[in-house]
Request: fold
Amino acid sequence: LFPSPVDAGHRAVIFDRFRGVQDVVVGEGTHFLIPWVQKPIIFDCRSRPRNVPVITGSKDLQNVNITLRILFRPVTAQLPRIFTSIGEDYDERVLPSITTEILKSVVVSTG
Reply:
C-alpha cells in the first residue's frame, strides 16, 4: 500500500485495473492504494473562472465581439461518470460549445 494525498478542494476517482473506474468519489486527505492496481485521477472541484470569446452576428448583420466569463465546477457525485464519458479535460470539451450557442441565442434575441 502507498499513500495518495488528495489536496483541499480536490476529489479523486479511483481507477482499478481489474474493476475499472470505481463509483466512489474520494475526498480530501491521505488514502492508501494498491500499487500498479489502483490509480487516483484527481479533479479540481473549486469554482474556477473561464473566459470564452465569441464573434457572432446580430439581427442587423453586424459582427459582435463578446467575451463571457463563467465560474464553473463539477458536481462531485458525478465525477466517475464525467471521467468515463468525457475525460479529465471535460471543461475544454464541454464549455466552449455550450457557451457559444447560448451567447449566439442571447445576441439574436436582444440585438
